[in-house]
C-alpha cells in the first residue's frame, strides 16, 4: 500500500513528536480524512524519509510521531538544471511540476525578450515561492526526498553572464545539425528553453557565446511546454536513470 507522503520544512529526526505544518495538516485531515493512528511518510528535503503516524488531532492541529528513518533516494545520477524562460498562464506550473517528476535537479526561471509574462519585485518573489510549493507537491507525488530549488527570477542575459564550469550547456534549435543522441555522455547538463516565441536571435547568440550548444529534436516545432519536458525525458533515457528498474 502506498502511504501518503508529506513534505515538512523543519528538520526531522526519529522519535520526534511534531506538529504538522498547517497546509499538510489540512490536506491530511480534511482532504484525505486520515484518523489518529494513520501511517504516513514525512520528508524534510535533506534526503531519506521517515515512517510516521498521526498521534492526535486537535481541531486544526495535527500532531505526529516519527518512527524509523529510511535512506531511500530516487535522484538521477544525471544533474540537470532547467533554465526556463517565463511561460504564460498555467504553463509554468505544469512545466515545473513535470520537470520535477522527470528528475530535474535545479530550476532557473528567467525573463527572456519574448516572454509574455512579466514579473518584478514582490510579484516575482511571490511567484517563485509559489513555484517552490509546486516543486514540493511534485516531490510528494513522485517519491523524491530531495526537493529541487527554484532560483530567484532574473533576466536571461544576466544569468548567461555567469560561468558554469563542467556543465554541458544545451539549447533547442530547430536548425541545429546535431541531436541529443549525437552528443557524448555528460554528468551535468544545463538545458535552456525559450518562451512561447522561442529565444530571440540576439539571445541565441549570447547563449552560444556562453557555451550553449544548439540541438534539434526531430522535424517538428515543439511548444515551449513540450520542448523542455521532451528533452528532459531523452536526457534521462540517454544518461540518467530511465533504464533503471
UniProtKB/TrEMBL annotation:
<keyword id="KW-0808">Transferase</keyword>
<dbReference type="InterPro" id="IPR006700">
    <property type="entry name" value="RsmE"/>
</dbReference>
<keyword id="KW-0963">Cytoplasm</keyword>
<feature type="domain" description="Ribosomal RNA small subunit methyltransferase E PUA-like">
    <location>
        <begin position="21"/>
        <end position="62"/>
    </location>
</feature>
<dbReference type="GO" id="GO:0070042">
    <property type="term" value="F:rRNA (uridine-N3-)-methyltransferase activity"/>
</dbReference>
<dbReference type="InterPro" id="IPR046886">
    <property type="entry name" value="RsmE_MTase_dom"/>
</dbReference>
<keyword id="KW-0949">S-adenosyl-L-methionine</keyword>
<dbReference type="Pfam" id="PF20260">
    <property type="entry name" value="PUA_4"/>
</dbReference>
<comment type="function">
    <text>Specifically methylates the N3 position of the uracil ring of uridine 1498 (m3U1498) in 16S rRNA. Acts on the fully assembled 30S ribosomal subunit.</text>
</comment>
<dbReference type="InterPro" id="IPR046887">
    <property type="entry name" value="RsmE_PUA-like"/>
</dbReference>
<dbReference type="InterPro" id="IPR029026">
    <property type="entry name" value="tRNA_m1G_MTases_N"/>
</dbReference>
<dbReference type="Pfam" id="PF04452">
    <property type="entry name" value="Methyltrans_RNA"/>
</dbReference>
<comment type="similarity">
    <text>Belongs to the RNA methyltransferase RsmE family.</text>
</comment>
<keyword id="KW-0698">rRNA processing</keyword>
<dbReference type="GO" id="GO:0070475">
    <property type="term" value="P:rRNA base methylation"/>
</dbReference>
<dbReference type="GO" id="GO:0005737">
    <property type="term" value="C:cytoplasm"/>
</dbReference>
<dbReference type="InterPro" id="IPR029028">
    <property type="entry name" value="Alpha/beta_knot_MTases"/>
</dbReference>
<protein>
    <recommendedName>
        <fullName>Ribosomal RNA small subunit methyltransferase E</fullName>
        <ecNumber>2.1.1.193</ecNumber>
    </recommendedName>
</protein>
<feature type="domain" description="Ribosomal RNA small subunit methyltransferase E methyltransferase">
    <location>
        <begin position="75"/>
        <end position="236"/>
    </location>
</feature>
<keyword id="KW-0489">Methyltransferase</keyword>
<dbReference type="InterPro" id="IPR015947">
    <property type="entry name" value="PUA-like_sf"/>
</dbReference>
Amino acid at each position: 500500500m502506498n502511504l501518503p507522503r508529506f513534505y515538512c520544512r523543519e528538520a526531522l529526526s526519529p522519535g520526534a513528536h511534531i506538529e504538522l505544518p498547517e497546509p499538510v495538516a489540512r490536506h491530511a485531515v480534511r482532504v484525505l480524512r486520515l484518523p489518529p493512528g494513520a501511517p504516513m511518510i514525512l520528508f524534510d528535503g535533506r534526503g531519506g524519509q521517515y515512517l510516521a503516524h498521526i498521534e492526535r488531532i486537535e481541531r486544526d492541529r495535527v500532531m505526529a510521531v516519527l518512527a524509523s528513518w529510511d535512506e531511500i533516494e530516487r535522484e538521477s545520477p544525471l544533474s540537470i538544471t532547467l533554465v526556463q524562460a517565463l511561460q504564460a498562464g498555467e504553463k509554468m506550473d505544469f512545466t515545473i511540476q513535470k520537470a520535477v517528476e522527470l528528475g530535474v535537479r535545479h530550476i532557473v526561471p528567467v525573463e527572456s525578450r519574448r516572454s509574455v509574462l512579466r514579473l518584478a519585485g514582490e510579484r516575482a518573489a511571490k511567484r517563485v515561492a509559489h513555484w517552490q510549493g509546486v516543486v514540493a507537491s511534485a516531490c510528494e507525488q513522485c517519491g523524491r526526498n530531495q526537493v529541487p530549488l527554484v532560483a530567484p527570477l532574473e533576466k536571461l542575459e544576466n544569468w548567461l553572464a555567469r560561468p558554469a564550469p563542467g556543465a554541458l550547456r544545451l539549447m533547442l534549435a530547430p536548425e541545429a545539425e546535431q541531436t541529443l543522441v549525437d552528443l557524448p555522455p555528460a554528468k551535468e547538463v544545463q538545458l535552456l528553453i525559450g518562451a512561447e516565441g522561442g529565444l530571440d536571435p540576439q539571445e541565441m547568440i549570447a547563449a552560444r557565446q556562453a557555451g550553449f550548444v544548439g540541438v534539434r529534436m526531430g522535424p517538428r516545432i515543439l511548444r515551449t511546454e513540450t520542448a523542455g519536458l521532451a528533452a528532459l525525458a531523452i536526457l534521462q533515457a540517454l544518461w540518467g536513470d530511465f533504464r533503471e528498474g
